[in-house]
Target: tRNA ligase phosphodiesterase domain-containing protein
Amino acid sequence: MDPHEKQRKHATRGHRWNQEMQSHGYKTGSYQSDSWHDHGPQISSQAKWVPRAQASTSTEALEISERADNEGEFQQEVPEESFHFARSTFAQAQLRATFYPKFENEKSDQEVRTKMIEVVQSGKGVLEVSLKHSGSLFMYSGDHGGAFAKNSYGNLYTAVGVFVLASTFQEAWGAQASQKQKEFNNHLETSRLCICMELVTAVLGDHGQRPKQDYVVVTAVADLKGKPHFYATPDLIMFCRQWRLPTNHVWLFSSRKSAASFFTAYDALCEEGTATSVSHVLDEISEISVPASKSHAEVQGEILEGLVARIVSPQSTERVQKVLEEFPLADCEDSSKLLLQKGLRTICAQHMISEKEQIKALLQSIGQDMCSDWSDWTSEGSNSTFLPKFLKATPLDHVTRKLQEMLRFLQDRKMRVRYPCHVKGYDAKEQKTHYRMTIHVLDDSVFRKYQTAMRRNPELWPLYRGFFMDVYLMHGSQNKNLVTALSDKFSKNSLSSDEQSNSLADESEDLMLKLKFLPYKIRTFLIRNGLSILFQNGFPAYRKYYLRQMGNWNTSSDKEQQLDRLLTEWAEYITGKGRGKGINSHMYLSEVEPFLEEFAKRSLWNKSLIGYTGPAGKTEELLKELTEEADVSEQQAPPVAKETVDGKGIIIFFPGIPGCGKSALCEELFKDPGDLANGRTIRSLMGDLVKGKYWSLLAKQHQQGPATGVTLADKNAPNVEVWKTVGDISKSTSAIGVPVVPDSGGTEYNPFSLEELALFMYRVLQRTNHPGNLDKKSPNAGYVLLMFYNLYSGKDRKEFEDTLRGAFGYLVKFPVLKANRPPLPSSIQEVLSEGLELFKRHAGKHGKLDSTKGSFSQKWSMWEKQLREVLNGNAAYFKEVQVPFEEVFQNLRQQLVAIAKGEICMQTSTEGEERFFKSITYAALSLPANEITNTLQQLAATNMELEKYFLGRMVIVNSAHVTLAHKHAHGVAAVAAFSEARGAVVSVKLKALLFSSKMCALEVQIMENERGIYTKNEWPHVTVWTAQGTKAKEANLLPQMVTRGHASHVDFTPVIVSGVVELL
Model:
């Protein structure tokens, strides 16, 4: 099209639009666009940069700016301290909107929990927890500053956001709303602030529940004058209360006890938590509770997406209290009279013809006090040539230089990031072009890679979510005075900007967790996200998908079975109703909610499963009913299935630490497999002799051998990634994977104790000519052992074993240390503690850099020498405490033979995925089952009545415990109170046996103890046996039944056993 003809059409459209909008009372300007065609709106941006002089259209402005850009030559690098005016293009950038950097924890969630508790205990931080509302990210920087969604602007999402924000002001300020909107916009733009909100509406797609109201809740305030700085929670609350903006519900946990109780409470609530139940529990166990401006249950509903936990400044507790006193919540009496004439849902419903019509109607209804600048909604087309020009331009300030540095890094590494950009305006007289650019990260792995780069180069600015910037490119040398002034300012301020925002400049600021609830995940992950799989691939693929998800979440076996039935029924319902045609996932709740409502009506436990509280949200009544029905004594054991291993191969692998005896055991098994070789070929592959990828080679070797062969993977397998690899190899070759681990009591944070670590180090330092060069001649042998030990950090022994059993169905443990052994010498404890602390410092500064390099190399050298002296000086101790090798070998071979013969049952698992958190139902004292069994057998042998009673009944107890608190009977907070006592050993006295025809239990007494541990049950007992159809909780009634003559009571000489506090 001829440029003059294009300009004439632009002007004509602009004239029509000006007339239309002037009739609505808007001011119009000369910056025209054809983006909304004949009826398309375009309002003057009224921002600093608008087209003038030669440029009367955005298209012509773009053409002029591109010509100007191409007139000069670009240099790749320019020293900060000097500007060369031979260069024709200068750049000044400013951030318009940004949200917190996406956090990706390097360590497991369990390790992050542990670290958070440690930080709180040390006084370096406070644990802050807030509700996660289920909506979309919306950011607002003022009328001219812009409205933004996560990775876009100028669309329905941002129009809806501005509308809801305007409605919020109307509701909060009433008659003053118009004036307050102007003041608010002016404050944001002059202070360079961006308000980040969760936008929760019913018109932008379904999440876990359609909200009762359309609303926003402020989650962050970003100061964008330099490097983005986010307001601390006290400042955010103060800011929001000054402007009467909605804030979230926030809880603070400032002691180790309360922080540990929080995580225990979450584990108890994770499979059934709703907004009301979760809020009540956190109110009870936190030091400070800051209620939300609007209750989640009232505005969104009971289905709660989750919680966000993070570490904040230790001063937060005191500052929050002060803010709450000085800035109480304010009410507006006349708000209901001045709300916008039409609601969001009405407007969107009346303009369903197109998204553009909806946007236009929404912006018109808001009014110019809140939104007079529509330029973001009328821009069209993307400028693909902008980014190279910006990166080559001379930066005029520190912010611009740092943003260029970030973008160059992303470009050079070819990371998956898009940079859509639009021209906002062109000043031909000054030869300045105003661009608005989005930094859109396409893959979450980019954030992880960038975080790694930041650890190597702390000068890099973070990569933010919701990342938008305005850039002004100045062409030619006409503005020499302006450029000189800016360069002077740049040189003065270039060193100050970064340092000013590092208020919490340690690893604590990166500690953050998202903790979601099952009722929400049922609707979103299992139903909504599975729709395409169900309709495209059929039910078997869908079932595999949802079972895999439940396995990832560590869903309890009971819930897993219930969900399997629910989702099977859902699949039949929706495929039958739709006759094989899929449904719109955008509005999926239209089908799901009626189905779930009918499902919930069938039983109380169905209601609990899906978080259904009825139309009126009667959460308290549901909790009361659940309490009355709860079985407060027993948990069902995980399902156990006998599975034959006939016709299957076996892959034996070792999640351990160097020095545990792995290679020696593999060598002896290969030479003397015993019955393990019955009908099977034994193969062994030693990792230290393999060049290249060990596990690929092992898979190939196992496939080439007989299908029923036994492969010994003689290589340490220390992490979940390796376990998954073994699982994949096992599945692809129809084999079973058998993890073999050294037995250990472990520590609170590691599945291996310091005793084992010391012994393994000692063994390594006695080696000579080791194929992997890890022996007495290795200068950093101790460091290598510490590195392996820390690979397991964050998992206690139970979690470690449960993860392996859950993934493979088997777990073989071989003995390492004798039961009756002297304690670890203090000299060894000290040298190990020093090494672990040095490792922590080294890893924090240098990552995986070898200990012979880096700033701690001399300290490592001294420590390695000290380690050898201490361990060799205690040679007699190590010889005394370790189990003889022959005994270890016989024990291991016996277990492996039993598995090969099918004599050991395989525990069922779900898809072999790692499981992070287990659901907690009650706190208990776990008692040694063998001692309980011995007591019962002795009673039966010495008492004829009991001998007759136990005849034909179970006298062997597989597990035994005394319930301390149950979440349904005593409340989640009561269970969480035992979190700090986990692992404590308490003496328990067995006193009497009470029994009836349907059940029997041991009466017990918890002995007085330093931790003050006692049971909340009126009658402390251990349930021994119940008849089929009898609930374990009915054992609580045995004392009353004895009184009424319906049960018997037999006293005996008390037996004292040791119990361990556990959360089950």
